[in-house]
Amino acid sequence: MTAPRTPHTSRTRETTRGAWPALRALRDRNAGLYLSGVVVSGFGTSALWLVSGVWVKDLTGSDGLAALCVLALWTPTLLGPALGTLADRVRRKPLLITGSLLLAGLLPTLFAVDSPDTVWLLFAVLFVYGAVGVVHDAAESALVATAVAPGLLGDFNGLRTTATEGMKLVAPPAGAGIYAAYGGASVAVLDAATFVLATALYAALRVREAPPEHPPARRRRQTAEGARYLWRHPRLRPLVLAGGVMMLCAGVCGATVYAVVDALGHSPAYAGALYAVQGAGSVAVGLLAGPALRRLGERRFAAAGITLLAISVTARAVPHDAVALLSFATAGAGMPAALIAALTAVQHETPGRLLGRTSATANSLLFAPNVLGLAAGAALVEHTDLLLLLPTTGAALLATAAALIRASHPNPTRTPSRSPSEANPA
User: Where residue 196 falls among pLDDT bands split at 50, 70, 90?
Assistant: First the structure.
């Protein structure tokens, strides 16, 4: 089933031929504005993400409370199906603007965080931050699917990954420097300023939105519609389930990073080098995602990414610097491939009226298992040898990739190079 989209006709054909794929997406005005907003707000988010944990650690001296910062940001992901429904009940462009302005106004309240007794305020702001992020991602996914030419969605999602991961390489050191010089509240103000700038970029989007539908169904039933749609769809269900299993395994592996560093004979700071090469791998795959999706289709591209991650995870058991660096770079390329494939397929295959809650549900199913994996990995790494834990996790990933290849549809979906309105004229 092909979801109805705003016709792009000749513009779609022009923007999907004759140029390097990344440039084709950037030439699209709306795609360029969106990506600029991702870069700007992503810089502030990445800086605050790092600084919040350091801030709590400095104020309280507690590693456990510092770790709760990540939990506060991620917990709203579990509420994705309910929060995503909001993106289907109101116009999405005003919702993006409202959410950005809400956070821009909320973040300066962190000037009040100056002692262990006020740390609760930081946790509360981070929870709201995460909840607004869930709604924001759902609205963005739904609006992008109508504002950006269908043939550019794969390229856009790849470039979005490149921008997000690129900011993770740049923003944390900048945030740490600002924190050291001026304190945590200054980083919060920087983040607030990036949301104001992102608001201006969203306001410049040229998008025609149909009035949102308000069906008579009860709110609980509307919330469940996205989950039902994903479960019943023969192509989306295997992609999202495979992505969720992959993120569960990735969480287990994430908890072993410092054990891997220890096996290499380095100090914990060496993890920074491993994360840097992993980020570089993610940046690279983001640039290649569009053409790879067109050539392989979402299912095969996702399976290839999961296979790369499986090889990477298994190789980490080898205590050698070169192998470790290569394995983290490979993981950085493999993991985003599966996520880009799943989220692009959701945008292509979901009707516009359901796209907000379906995207949010897909995000919950993809990313919530990562938190569970981190918890399981933290318990396993204390009692299980890496030579057993890592290859076993790699084998589970290989089985997931194989199941994805066998599942789904006899005709693999490929990212279209033309608008659905051209292929299926009404």
Answer: very high
pTM of the full predicted structure?
0.71
Nearest to 69 by CA among 40, 90, 48: 48
Write down the residue that tokens 């030439």 correspond to. 27
pLDDT band at residue 205 using 50, 70 and 90 as cut-offs? confident
**pLDDT digit string (tens) for 216-260?**
555 556 667 777 888 888 888 899 999 999 999 998 888 788 788
